[in-house]
Design brief:
By secondary structure, the protein is an alpha/beta fold. 36% of the residues lie in helices and 14% in strands.
Length: 280
């Protein structure tokens, strides 16, 4: 989805870290057989890091500038495993950092002494320090150049395979989605509009917003082809339009669209869409 559509807010909601005055107004968040909204603050604190971790967009604002890299990882381990010997925690931290391709001599560096790609590797290390089951990666490649981004994505795929991770990748980069994802959820104006396997979504998008989004991606194989643009602008989320929020920009809008919001409906196994065109 586009910037400002609620992707990062959704990620923070899954961790129950929505900032005031925002709040989780309703619904359920199920993880490992538990509704996270039923947990008390201490139970939720223990779940974060140990079972669900997050990689934030900007590691420079997430890492403590006064702590060495090794101390970040050791602190994460000892916070959840206070019974562990500190020396053993440091050994575990060193092994993890080495697994991420950071040389041992960089363990005593401070965040500002590392490159952007290295800092993001440290963020992965913090997420993996306790072998979390789910990692929420919020725009993890935003500040990286193309070459470092490719290396970072290769590392994520490798770790996903080796550790059996589930990764919830938040991004507006369609190329990153195609490279890394198994299933894709498309958001528009704080609403989920389509959910499908990555091959199905790229091969035959159903929602008009998804269709327009994919059509706007430049294709170097089509010489002389005109770049397709999406008319209009995203709505004001304080006063969203009635009905389907995409209808003012949709070339397929018809009678119910301006008046009734289409529910997210499973149109075939594993394929969900919120659009009146598809019988919702």
């Amino acid at each position: 989805g586009e910037s400002g559509c609620g992707k990062s807010t959704l990620g923070m909601a899954l961790l129950r870290l929505v900032r005031h005055p925002g709040r989780i107004a309703g619904g359920e968040i199920w993880f490992d057989g538990k509704n996270l909204l039923d947990l008390d603050d201490e139970e939720m604190r223990l779940l974060r890091g140990a079972h669900i971790s997050m990689i934030f967009q900007d590691p420079m604002t997430s890492l403590n500038p006064l702590q060495r890299i090794s101390d970040h990882v050791v602190e994460t381990i000892l916070t959840h495993k206070p019974e562990m010997d500190e020396e053993k925690a440091r050994q575990q931290a060193a092994e993890l950092i080495d697994r991420l391709g950071i040389m041992a001599e960089r363990l005593d560096d401070y965040p500002h002494q590392l490159s952007g790609g290295m800092r993001q590797r440290v963020m992965i290390g913090l997420a993996l320090a306790l072998r979390a089951d789910l990692i929420i990666a919020d725009e993890p490649t935003t500040s990286l150049d193309v070459i470092v981004e490719a290396q970072f994505l290769d590392l994520l795929k490798e770790l996903q395979r080796d550790f059996g991770l589930t990764i919830l990748l938040i991004t507006h980069n369609i190329g990153v989605v195609a490279q890394l994802s198994d299933r894709v959820a498309v958001m528009y104006a704080a609403k989920l509009v389509e959910l499908a396997d990555v091959e199905d979504l790229f091969g035959a998008p159903l929602h008009p917003y998804t269709q327009a989004l994919l059509a706007s991606v430049p294709n170097i194989r089509l010489v002389g082809d005109t770049l397709k643009i999406m008319r209009g602008s995203p709505p004001d989320l304080i006063q969203p339009p009635p009905g389907c929020r995409f209808h003012p920009r949709c070339s397929h809008a018809f009678e119910p669209c301006p008046f009734e919001e289409p529910p997210l409906t499973e149109v075939r196994p594993g394929r969900w869409v919120a659009c009146w065109l598809h019988g919702t």
